[in-house]
Amino acid sequence: MDNFLEARHIVKRFAKHTALNDVSVEVPRGQIFGLLGPNGAGKTTLIRILNRITAPDQGEVFFDGRLQEPTDVQRIGYLPEERGLYKKMKVGEQAIYLAQLKGLSRSEAEMRLRNWFEKFDIMPWWNKKLEELSKGMAQKVQFIITVLHEPDLLIFDEPFSGFDPVNAEQLKQEILELKEKGHTIIFSTHNMSSVEEICDTIALINHSQVVLKGNMQEVKSQFRTGLYDLVTTSASLQPLDGVFSIIGNRSISGVHRYSLRKAETVDNNQLVETLARQVEIRSFAEQMPTMNDVFLNVVGQDATWADQQIENK
Amino acid sequence: MNKILIIIQREFLKRVKKKSFIVLTILMPFILAALVMVPLWLSTIENDEQSNIAVVDNTGHYFPVLKDTQTFHFVLMPKVLPDMKSDSSSFEAVVNITADLSKNPNAITIFSRKEVSGGLLSYVESQINEQVRKDKLAASGVPELDKIIDDIDRDISISTVKWDKEGQATSSNTEIAIGAGFIFTFLIYMFVMAYGGMVMQSVIEEKTNRIVELMVSSVKPFQLMMGKIIGIALVGFVQLIIWGILFTIILTVATAIFGPEVTQSAAATQPMMGAASQMPMSEVSGDTVEILSALKNLPYLELMLMFVLYFIGGYLLYASFFAAVGASVNEQEDSSQFVLPVTLIMVFGLYAAMYSVNNTDGPLAFWASIFPLTSPIVMMVRIPFGVPLWQEALSIVLLYASAIGMVWVGAKIYRVGILMYGKKPSLKEMIKWLRYK
Question: N or C: which end of chain A has fewer CB within 10 A?
């Protein structure tokens, strides 16, 4: 697959701990890549390296098929987790200034900014100072600033934090729209439900290392539980050794819901055939793990470690 | 456009557009001028109302020496009357002389319903003293003793002359040289402090605003730091130029209105305000022509060139230090532990400059004008007196070497510091940051 960005064997050490230990991730072109991990796992450090804010001790970053160069930062849009803008500066002027630093000309920046402000219907904010805006309004401005120079690569660090559900939904649509337009997006978060909704590929960082990565569906299938939900009108289902066992059974007004555990030696089709011989199937579904399950499964084993890291920090 | 230029532009425009900057820049010369000129002007206005002073002179010997002045009118009275004590009395005060003062120096008293005015006291004292002195000299029996004494008392007057390179005598004036040196010294001290502090303020603001992470994803931290330092320096230059122009205009106008005497002494005292009051006005207000010729003979080109060099070097050295401190701390309050020692060094420099004036080639003046942390302040007072070229060169080279070194160290600390939150920085920590990649 064509990778827009690759980090190869990145190592970053600080005085007291190693933030990244031989981390390699591949971000496919035109996809949304979820960078997951608990607090203190090293996500922000990796993002800073991709942004060339800090340099790795070892390893290298490949950008658009070649070694990353200093000027590549103009092709990156970065929304940091710690949001912040100049409080005393007027919104419009500020956005143009920051866009100029990303390589846009003044007139080009102004034109694009007008389009965005019209799109979000926030034209009256143009001459307001940032400190006059509410937190949510400032977040919107910051999002516009991130995407204004239409970078090939967008990096969003916890983009939904601080947004109310309505604005979060609007932001999600914008992100999906950006993907449609061909932008590659890195999306860092520990909010797993949003990952589920928008990510194509993920990498999970824990203990300063990548512990899991790949296509999200493939990752999920690695964590198949072998549990199934069956809905039927008959109460006569009997477990069959070597095929399945019944681990739960609830009946509500003549409808029976079974939780089944499948034996590892049979596949789904064989299971359905076996079940169909016994009862009439109203619905049948495999219990797919959510990303939250995957996350907890991988990280939860040593959640205390993350806490210690935070204390050490 | 180059990114560093964009940053310089913003840092510069943001500050010069501020109302407080515009007001301060335009009003300051007028306020300073007013502070000096108004009292001077007021003191030249004479009180046209004479107050009556009663003199009760039992000896009859002293009244004639108390001649009327513009403010006091002396009236001989036979004795102290009771109604002199009442408020309706036409006499401001009563001078009561009861006996021969050359025999009994305490036999004179001034009575008044209010506090006796200093002017009256000193006038009466000096006049009577003079008379008593004459009386005593006459009593000694030596003929023309008073003339001999006067001759002994005459002050000598030294005129200072500096030889130029061809050995020609040029007029020089030590006070003018001191004044010129102090103007520049004080300007450098003030601007480095104020504008260096502004750099720190601005860095802290960016860090606490959390905008800095966004900034360094677009520009290198070094560009951000240097853009800020240069932008703020330009603000300082603009302020300096405007002040220079305004002062020139004010002096020209004031000279036209008040005449050269007042303006000359005012101009000479202006730089001393707050810096030092070692130069009493009277010393300067000598012969106007002589002062003017001394002013002409100051090494202007050298002064200006060195001022600009020391200004830039000193500012760069301190501003990059302040930037590093600003980047390391989490809030303004934490900065004092780093800023205080440096401020003390600068204050030391200022005092060293003041004391160097008495001995511009002494060891204090020499070492303090070579040591880079104090040289921008101290060297400027020495230059009007003439400094060997090798000393100037050594001092400048050392200053710029350490300024560049400080910029390098500052940039390294800045780069790491701006992204460190929540930890109180220590010097040890900051040294560790130097090694980060």
Answer: N
